[in-house]
UniProtKB/TrEMBL annotation, chain A:
One of its GO terms (molecular function) is ATP binding. Residues 6-246 form the ABC transporter domain. It holds the Pfam family ABC_tran. Involved in beta-(1-->2)glucan export. Transmembrane domains (TMD) form a pore in the inner membrane and the ATP-binding domain (NBD) is responsible for energy generation. InterPro entries: AAA+_ATPase, ABC_carbohydrate_import_ATPase, ABC_transporter-like_ATP-bd, P-loop_NTPase. Keywords: ATP-binding, Nucleotide-binding. This is Sugar ABC transporter ATP-binding protein. Signal peptide: none annotated.
């Protein structure tokens, strides 16, 4: 079997006396879309933040391409090829689309110490990538605050894809989107996956998950209820699992690859 | 670092979005963060031109006086502006003006160090104290308002205490002679372009003293170094903020520190560096005042932090960070300087200075809020 791009083994995360994650294992293969489902407060965001270098896990091991990795900060995770689009903190509203797009990786020109941002190139690429995602901007200097919630998410997704992430983590990217933009994001996930990038797709919406997912993992109160492959589980079964797993016993047979 | 890649459009839109209104070039050119400050500056000059057009205010000599006062505000405002955009305040900057000047004077007079060494030590100390402020703020997560308020008292207290315990006075004089021939002190005091001004005077372009010891010399000898500092800092600040990667990080740090951190911006480093830079600006002002006046006084810089904050806010910066303009802040400083000196020329009751300033502050801030909403789409 191929080596997962990222593998998380028995991850625990405690915030003081709150146990947000109590032993979650999870992996992403190249070119797959692994959906992470769960109710509010299940620990999905906390889990992907440990993957993205925001939180250090209290316990557990993390492997990138089969080798143990420790991320001290989000920059480390980014340079390992893990890009994340956060649920609520994707972009900075007061700043322009172009500046947001390039944040942290600004293209520079000139001689040190007089290096400046290459605005011409930055603006052109930002406009182009945004229009690929179906969003037409008035100008690259347009502030992100003037965009709708969905358009803001799209800026962050376009950015992550452009910078050639190996793993793209999307925390509820479709929760604020309308029909057309959701279709766009799902189509983008599909394309990203075809390029061999592993996608971690967090959602509450089982239909969105079923549309693109290759594997499904359900989190509940900081624990995994199991991982199922595409075609081995129905939308109804997933829905029930998310709702608290009352019918877990009945579903156990369908969860072939239970961790 | 990574390979840029392009994803073909799932739903490609080639046509212009029909819901986007075209914005005229003119509208785009004038809707900018500095607009409020530009209007304010025009209003203030118009006001004084009517009231004091015939006085010395609009002679070269008068212009030099309000320019010098404005320059003091600019030097501080540039530091405060960048720090405020990064999302923090420093209320200890006024005390830092007094403190750095006093340290400079005491090292020279009481300890007998060479002037250039005292200047370097005072600047280094200011940077270090700025860093301590910054580290305390980012490590404790306390509002910078509280942390730097504490430093406002601590530094002012240390200034008075060190002066009294070393010299038994709160004013340390004798710096004029000490700094007279020092190579580094020349950067902080005196005037530049004196040759040009003398030449202009010889050709009758600017007036000369008719009598006395300085007969034949121009009434304005040159451009004070402080104005050179102000212009230099203004250009540097504006360039840093709007053209460089670090400037992008300053905006991001103040705009949304959490989002900035997640995307890989070293937020704590940016904040600490901005605290250091603001302290450095205060120290430059403190040292140049000492060189200029020939003495250090323990009460220098009193209330200067608030005045600088007012300049920056008039200039269009958002008090909560993430938005602002260095040029705007400098215009705010000019408004401040012109009003302060203008009321002196017009012989208006100086208490009216505050009334006038308060009104301008209010007007500019209301205008700025409106402009900012237009630009950023804040709801
Ligand atoms: N920094 C923190 N400090 C303390 N507790 C936290 C912190 N972050 C998360 N938690 C707790 O961990 C639990 C999981 O939160 P998390 O944000 O991961 O949920 P989620 O599955 O993403 O929910 P949602 O679907 O609403 O986004 C919650 O009970 C939350 O209160
Ligand atoms: Mg969440």
């Amino acid at each position: 079997m191929a080596v997962p791009i990222v593998e998380m083994i028995d991850i625990q995360k405690h915030f003081g006396h709150i146990i947000a994650l109590s032993g979650v294992s999870f992996s992403v293969m190249p070119g797959e879309c692994h959906c992470l489902l769960g109710d509010n407060g299940a620990g999905k965001s906390t889990f992907i933040k440990t993957m993205a270098g925001v939180h250090a896990p209290t316990h557990g091991e993390m492997k990138v391409n089969g080798e143990t990795a420790h991320f001290a900060n989000p920059r480390d995770a980014m340079s390992a090829g893990i890009a994340t689009v956060y649920q609520d903190l994707a972009v900075i509203p007061l700043m322009s689309v172009s500046r947001n797009f390039w944040m942290g990786r600004e293209p520079e020109r000139g001689v040190w110490p007089f290096r400046t941002i290459d605005f011409k190139m930055a603006d052109r690429v930002a406009m182009q990538e945004m229009s690929h995602m179906g969003i037409n901007l008035r100008e690259p200097e347009q502030a992100v605050g003037t965009l709708s919630g969905g358009e803001r998410q799209t800026v962050a997704i376009a950015r992550a894809v452009y910078f050639g992430a190996k793993v793209l983590i999307l925390d509820e990217p479709t929760s604020a989107l309308g029909v057309r933009q959701t279709a766009n994001v799902l189509a983008t996930i599909d394309q990203v996956r075809k390029k061999g990038i592993g996608v971690v797709f967090i959602t509450h919406n089982v239909r969105h998950a079923m549309a693109v997912g290759d594997r499904f993992t359900v989190l509940n109160r900081g624990k995994t209820l199991g991982t199922a492959d595409r075609g081995k589980i129905s939308a109804d079964e997933l829905q029930n699992l998310m709702a608290g797993g009352q019918e877990l016993a009945q579903l156990e047979s369908s969860l072939g690859g239970t961790v | 670092m990574t390979m840029p890649s392009t994803v073909a459009a799932p739903l490609m839109h080639t046509a212009r979005d029909e819901r986007i209104k075209r914005m005229s070039k003119f509208r785009r050119a004038i809707i900018r963060p500095e607009l409020g400050a530009i209007c304010g500056t025009v209003a203030v000059f118009a006001f004084f031109f009517v009231l004091a057009g015939g006085t010395a205010m609009f002679t070269l000599e008068g212009a030099m006086s309000w320019s010098t006062v404005s320059a003091q505000f600019v030097v501080l405002a540039v530091g405060v502006c960048l720090l405020m955009i990064a999302g923090e305040f420093d209320l200890s900057l006024g005390s830092m003006v007094g403190f750095s000047g006093m340290i400079f004077a005491l090292l020279t007079i009481a300890l007998g160090l060479p002037v250039w060494l005292s200047i370097l030590l005072a600047l280094t100390l200011a940077c270090a104290l700025g860093a301590i402020n910054g580290i305390l703020v980012v490590r404790t997560g306390l509002p910078s308002f509280i942390v730097t308020l504490a430093f406002m008292f601590i530094l002012r207290g240390l200034t008075i205490w060190s002066a009294i315990s070393l010299t038994r006075q709160t004013v340390v004089s004798g710096m004029g002679e000490a700094a007279a021939n020092d190579p580094l002190a020349r950067l902080f005091g005196g005037k530049v372009l004196t040759g040009l001004f003398q030449w202009l005077a010889n050709h009758g372009v600017i007036a000369t003293f008719a009598r006395g010891a300085r007969a034949g010399q121009p009434v304005v000898e040159g451009i004070p170094m402080l104005i050179v500092w102000a212009i230099g800092l203004l250009i540097f600040g504006q360039w840093l903020l709007t053209r460089t990667k670090f400037g992008n990080w300053i905006f991001a740090t103040g705009g949304d520190p959490q989002a900035a951190r997640y995307i890989g911006v070293p937020v704590t480093r940016v904040k600490i560096i901005m605290f250091m830079f603001a302290s450095l600006c205060a120290a430059v002002l403190g040292i140049s005042q000492v060189v200029e006046f020939g003495s250090a006084a323990a009460d220098r810089g009193l209330m200067k932090e608030f005045e600088a904050i007012i300049c920056v806010v008039i200039g269009g910066a958002l008090l909560t960070g993430g938005y602002g303009s260095v040029i705007g802040a400098a215009l705010g400083a000019v408004i401040f300087g012109v009003v302060q000196q203008g009321l002196f020329f017009t012989n208006v009751e100086s208490s009216l200075f505050r009334v006038f300033l308060g009104s301008i502050l209010l007007g500019a801030v209301i205008a700025n809020t409106y402009i900012r909403r237009l630009i950023t789409g804040e709801r």
